[in-house]
Structure formats: structure tokens, C-alpha cells
Write a structure and sequence with these properties.
alpha/beta, disordered N terminus, ABC transporter transmembrane region fold, 598 residues, single chain, 2 domains, Rossmann fold
Length: 598
């Protein structure tokens, strides 16, 4: 069934996010002061221009009238000086505008860069449980769409706010200096302008928030479809996937259309109000000109100012729409940056000279508090022992090793290594204790050499090659054209599943850990390769505490201790022979794998 689409009416906390956003900009305070001063200078020079140009118009008008009434003509010298002065002012305005534009671009890009850096750093600090609730597309959208919107809108809106406010105030002063009565008439149009602006902005706010939310959902849908396209085709789920995308994309389209339509509506409305001002000023100005209370040049200047007076109001309204979009994006980024981290205790210690004794003491855990997976797990493992964990799917086998790695925190009990609670061990040191080969082999875009060296970046090439030989993967690498320098692509689909698993085993061998975790390490290889890997694993596990999760019970016959899990509890434990002798749950699982098909 397609997911139910729920539209979002408004931002979660616009006011609080706005304060956080402004606070995060304090580090650029000096730059903003410079931008503010340069923007003021640029705007003031451009504001003075129309009045000076009006003086030139008045001079031309007086010259024409004078020539008709007497021999005095147009004073081109005076007009030339006025125009040169005007040109100089506009040049200075351009220079100041150019400089403040460069500084503002630098600030906005640095801010976006720092935000991306914080998000990237945060990804490595949030607990694994965070990603159980979010898909990759949503997190990716933070780094791309949301931060891009913040950077672009900050670049445009910060300067425009300054110039619009200065233009508004400066234009008002200039209009008052020309004629107070006409200025009052123009000001009477302001309430109409503000009513239209507030109505448009109020309606567009909720759509900008919804647009950002569903942009992340659509990204998630696309990423999920692209990453799992083979599974989608195999299960003929194209229609279901399309329905999910269609529903999310439909809401995105509607929100995007409405937000952009309402935002775009601002300009024609302001142009219409500006044209009304134009007509009013022309009529009243003409009347005052006839009475001799205002010059022709001043009428021209006033008309220009009246049109300029509505422009900053329109710009401020549009900027406010942009700010809503920016705050909606910033809210999502800040929520991620401020999300709960996997905080390390202040008194955490570095565990040196690890032996490998592990103790599970009344361990209780659930991915959700009301759904406990591991109910009461107890086990003591001595250094160097091979511990096999078996049981049906969903029994909690993989969960046990995730808890051991402290990917999740317990609901009860504790896990200790060499008598020290893992919660009291520094995360960095805890990670170095373990070597892990998971059921889902993970490789990144890079050379084979870099992938194997991932757990120990300082390892030499010779060490990497030696590890690959022990993992029985060197023969495969030697057959490749570029050998160890072959680049594994982004999807890791230019090597087989079995080869990927062999490479991850080589990575674990290179790390030389004190405790080894093998989660279905041979699940993706053929029987012959499994035998070779098993030999390598036996060599690797010598003298190390090893936890082996296996469905194929034939691979764990030589384990020192086998833990049989069912519904989160250890129902049986012992060696392979001891458990078979009991004729219990383990025997049933073992026999089911070797049952003859009649």
C-alpha cells in the first residue's frame, strides 16, 4: 500500500530557529558590519541620483522656456557638470556594491561550508539508532538541498535587507525634501501594500516548509529505488515504488507550485501599486507645477522615488519568503546537528594490553523500550575462546555482537571486557579491540589496496598483500588487470559478493584485533572457497577471543562454546558434541540442515 501523505501546515518553531540562525552568524560579525557600511554607501549614492538628474531636467526645461521668452538658451555646461557628478556617484555606488557583494558571497559560502562540515562530523557522532529512523536520502538532503538553500538565500537576502531598508528610508527623506504633501499621499498607499504583502507571505510560509520536507522524502525515494533496483525488479515491485514516489512527488509539486506562485505574485502586485502611485504623483505634481510650487525636474525625481519606494517593500516581502524557506531548511539542519550524540563518559578509560575476557551479565535490550529483544543474556568468555552463536532468524544473534561493539546502549545489565564495563571504555579504544566481518560486506569507492587498509591506514603495502594471502583473496587480485590498484566502483558491483567478503576478511586480518567478530563471514562464498576461508579464519582466531555467528553449523563444530539463542534467551550452551548428546533445540537445528530429502 502507498504511504499516507500528510502535509505540514507550518514550521515547527520558526521563532526559536530564527534565533539559532542569527546566533550562528555572530562569528561573521565584522564581515557583516563591513557589508552593512558598503551597502549603505552604495544605496545612498544611488538614491541621490534621481534628484540630481531632476536638476538636469529642470535646467533643460528652464532653458527651453527661457529661449522662447528671451535670448537666453540652455546652459549645456551646467547640465554637463550635473551629469558628470551623477556618473561619478553611480560609479562609486557600483564599486561599493561590487565589494560588498564579494564579501557577502564569501561569508555565505563559508557558512554553508561550515554547516556541511558540522553535519559530516555529526554523522560520526550520532548513535546507530538514529539511522534506524532516517533513510539515507533524508540525511543526504541535509547536506545538499537544505544547506544549498541556506547558502544561496543568505547571499541574496542579507544584502537585500540592508539595501531595501536604506532605500526605503533614504527615498522617504528625499521625497519629503521635494514635497511633503505628495509624500503623504504616497504614504497613504503603504497600508494597502503591507496588507497585500502580509497576506501573500502568510499563505506561502506553510508551503515552503512542506516543500523542504517532501524534497527530502523524494530524494529518499530516489536513493532507495536506485540502491535497490535489482530487488525491486526481482519482486516486481515497480508499481508500489512508483506509487510511493508519485504520492511524495505530488505533494512536493503542489507545495512547490503554491509557494513559488505566491512568492511570484508579490512582484506584479507591487508593480500595480507602484503604477497607481505613478498616476497619483503625476496628477498632483502637475497641479503643483502649474501653481509654481514644484519644478518639472522635481516631478520627474518624485515619480522615480515613488516607484523606488514600493520596490524595497516588494523586495522585503520577497526576502521574508526566502527567509521562511531558509529557516525551514535551517530547522532541519539544526535538528540534526543538535540531535543526541553517543556521548562518551568523562571518566572513560583507555584499555591497554587487552586479554580478551568478555562477560555478559544479565543483558537486557530492545530497539524499542516496549519491545525487548534480548531478555536476560548471561555468558562468560575466557581469552582465546571461540564462541559460536546460533539460533533461528530473529533470535538476537547479530544484536548480541552489536551490543558488544556498543552500537546500542543496554536497557539493563552490563557487558565487560577484562572486567571493565564497555560503557567506561573510550570509544576509540573499544573500536581498536574488535575486528569485524559482517554478513553485509561493505567496500567503498577506491582501490582494493585502500579498501583492505581501511582499518589500519598506516599499514604498508606488504602487510596488505600478506593479509590478502591469508584471506585467500590474493589469487583473485592477481588476475585483475590493475591488481591491488583496481578501483572498486561506488556500488561495489564490479566484484562479486564472495570476493567482497574475502576482501573484508583481509581487512580484519590486517587489523590484528584482540577480539574477532564473524557474522556469517562465509555466507556468500562457495563450498570450496569456504574451506579455504575457514583455514584462514582458524589461523586468524588462534590466541584471540572470537565470536562466530553462523547458520551453517558445520563451520562451528570446533568452537569452544556454542550458545544457542531463541527469542533473546540462551536456551542451551556447550560444545558441539555436548549439545548433540542432549538431543534438544540445537540437535533439531543441526538435523534440519542435514535432513535427507526423500
Amino acid at each position: 500500500m502507498p504511504r499516507k501523505v500528510v502535509a505540514i501546515d507550518k514550521a515547527k518553531d520558526f521563532k526559536t530557529t530564527s534565533k539559532k540562525f542569527l546566533a550562528s552568524l555572530k562569528q561573521y560579525k565584522v564581515a557583516f558590519i563591513i557589508i552593512f557600511l558598503f551597502a549603505i554607501c552604495s544605496t545612498v549614492f544611488s538614491i541621490v541620483g534621481p534628484k540630481i538628474l531632476g536638476n538636469a531636467t529642470t535646467e533643460i526645461y528652464n532653458g527651453i522656456i527661457g529661449k522662447l521668452s528671451s535670448s537666453v538658451g540652455i546652459n549645456f555646461g551646467k547640465i554637463g557638470k550635473i551629469l558628470i557628478t551623477l556618473l561619478i556617484l553611480y560609479i562609486f555606488s557600483l564599486i561599493f556594491s561590487f565589494i560588498q557583494g564579494i564579501i557577502m558571497t564569501n561569508v555565505s559560502q563559508k557558512y554553508a561550508y561550515n554547516l556541511r562540515k558540522k553535519v559530516e562530523e555529526k554523522i560520526n557522532k550520532v548513535p546507530v539508532s538514529y539511522f534506524d529512523k532516517k533513510n539515507n536520502g533524508e540525511v543526504l538532503s541535509l547536506i545538499t538541498n537544505d544547506i544549498d538553500i541556506i547558502g544561496q538565500n543568505l547571499n541574496q537576502s542579507a544584502t537585500q535587507i540592508i539595501t531595501s531598508v536604506v532605500t526605503l528610508i533614504g527615498t522617504l527623506v528625499m521625497m519629503l525634501s521635494i514635497n511633503v504633501v505628495i509624500t503623504i499621499v504616497v504614504l497613504l498607499m503603504l497600508p494597502v501594500t503591507f496588507i497585500f504583502a502580509s497576506k501573500i507571505v502568510g499563505k506561502s510560509q506553510k508551503y515552503f516548509t512542506t516543500q523542504q520536507e517532501y524534497l527530502a522524502k523524494v530524494n529518499g525515494d530516489v536513493e532507495e529505488s536506485y540502491g535497490g533496483h535489482m530487488v525491486i525488479k526481482a519482486f516486481n515491485a515497480e508499481e508500489k515504488v512508483f506509487d510511493n514516489f508519485y504520492n511524495d512527488n505530488k505533494v512536493l509539486y503542489q507545495a512547490g507550485w503554491k509557494s513559488n506562485f505566491l512568492s511570484g505574485l508579490m512582484h506584479p502586485v507591487m508593480v500595480f501599486i507602484g503604477n497607481i502611485n505613478y498616476v497619483v504623483v503625476a496628477i498632483i505634481g502637475g497641479y503643483f507645477a502649474v501653481l509654481g510650487k514644484i519644478t518639472v525636474g522635481n516631478i520627474q525625481s518624485f515619480i522615480t522615488y515613488s516607484k523606488n519606494f514600493t520596490n524595497p517593500i516588494s523586495q522585503l516581502a520577497q526576502i521574508f519568503s526566502m527567509l521562511q524557506q531558509t529557516i525551514a531548511a535551517a530547522e532541519r539542519v539544526f535538528d540534526f546537528i543538535e540531535s543526541k550524540e553517543d556521548v562518551e563518559r568523562k571518566d572513560a578509560i583507555s584499555l591497554k594490553n587487552v586479554k580478551g575476557d568478555v562477560c555478559f551479565n544479565h543483558v537486557k535490550f530492545g530497539y524499542k523500550k516496549d519491545k525487548i529483544v534480548i531478555k536476560d543474556f548471561n555468558c562468560k568468555v575466557k581469552s582465546g575462546q571461540k564462541i559460536a552463536i546460533v539460533g533461528p532468524t530473529g533470535a538476537g544473534k547479530t544484536t548480541i555482537v552489536k551490543l558488544l561493539m556498543r552500537f546500542y546502549h543496554l536497557n539493563g545489565g552490563f557487558i565487560s571486557i577484562d572486567g571493565v564495563d564497555i560503557e567506561n571504555i573510550k570509544k576509540e579504544d573499544l573500536s581498536k579491540i574488535f575486528g569485524m566481518v559482517l554478513q553485509d560486506a561493505w567496500l567503498f569507492n577506491g582501490t582494493i589496496m585502500d579498501n583492505v587498509r581501511y582499518g589500519m591506514l598506516e599499514a604498508s603495502d606488504d602487510k596488505v598483500i600478506e593479509a590478502c594471502k591469508l584471506a585467500r583473496v590474493d589469487h583473485f587480485i592477481d588476475t585483475l588487470k590493475d591488481g591491488y590498484n583496481m578501483v572498486i566502483n561506488e556500488e561495489s558491483d564490479n566484484v562479486s559478493l564472495g570476493q567482497k567478503q574475502l576482501l573484508t576478511i583481509a581487512r580484519a586480518i590486517l587489523l590484528n584485533p584482540k577480539i574477532l567478530i564473524l557474522d556469517e563471514a562465509t555466507s556468500s562464498v562457495d563450498t570450496r572457497t569456504e574451506v579455504l576461508i575457514q583455514e584462514a579464519m582458524d589461523h586468524l582466531m588462534e590466541g584471540r577471543t572470537s565470536f562466530i555467528i553462523a547458520h551453517r553449523l558445520s563451520t562451528i563444530k570446533n568452537a569452544d562454546l556454542i550458545l544457542v539463542l531463541n527469542d533473546g534467551d540462551v536456551v542451551e550452551q556447550g560444545t558441539h558434541e555436548q549439545l548433540l548428546a542432549k538431543g534438544g533445540f540445537y540437535t533439531d537445528i543441526y538435523n534440519s540442515q542435514f535432513e535427507k530429502i526423500s
